[in-house]
Amino acid sequence: MGELFERIKDARTELHLSQEYVAKYMELNRTAIVEIEAGKRKVSAEELGKFSQLFKISVEQLLNGKMTAMPETIFARNFGELDENDQQEILNLIEFKKMLKEKRG
Fold first, then answer.
1. How far from 25 is each of 9, 14, 15, 84, 101, CA to CA, in Å?
2. Which of 12, 39, 60, 85 maximizes the CB count within 10 A of its CB?
3. CA-to-CA distance for 58 and 69, rounded, in angstroms?
4. pLDDT surpasses 80 at 18
5. Long-range contacts from 44-51, C-beta under 8 angstroms, 24+ separation
6. What Cα–Cα distance (Å) separates residue 56 from each residue in 41, 67, 75?
7. Does residue 77 come out as left (phi exceeding 0), alpha (psi in the -120 to 50 range) or beta?
8. What mean pLDDT, rounded, does the chain reach?
9. 26: closest CA among 44, 40, 39, 38?
């Protein structure tokens, strides 16, 4: 299942978040994120909670490696937090991507 630091890195990359973005959200510098993801720095309980909120997975999932949240679930949670204009913009982008895929295939 890997170590906590590997699960943090995997969750970040799965969501296509930069280390810089995560650092800003966590109110840390990027070096701290690099050290956490390399297993060179421990994560405090407060930081673990922030990672959980950012990645939309439970602290237990981060600690135990049972990352059951599917990309669709993560998307749905985040989508619901957006205002109506942002939601419409994303829906338009999805339709555009579908149209491009149809033209290719």
1. 15, 17, 14, 23, 34
2. 12
3. 9
4. yes
5. 50/25, 50/26, 51/8, 51/11, 51/26
6. 22, 10, 10
7. alpha
8. 89
9. 44
Q: What does the domain layout of the chain look like in residue ranges? A: 1-67, 70-105
Place of tokens 């599917």: 70
**Structural domain 1-67, CATH architecture:** Orthogonal Bundle (1.10)
If you average pLDDT over residues 72-97, what whole number do you get?
Answer: 86
Token pair of 27, please?
């109110």
The two three-digit tokens of residue 46, written as one number: 């407060």
CA–CA dist 13, 61 (Å, integer): 16
* 64 close to 1: Cβ distance less than 8 angstroms: yes
Q: Is the pTM of this model over 0.70?
A: no
Q: What is the DSSP string of the chain?
A: ---HHHHHHHHHHHTT--HHHHHHHHTS-HHHHHHHHTTSS---HHHHHHHHHHHTS-HHHHHH------HHHHHHHHHHTS-HHHHHHHHHHHHHHHHHHHHH-
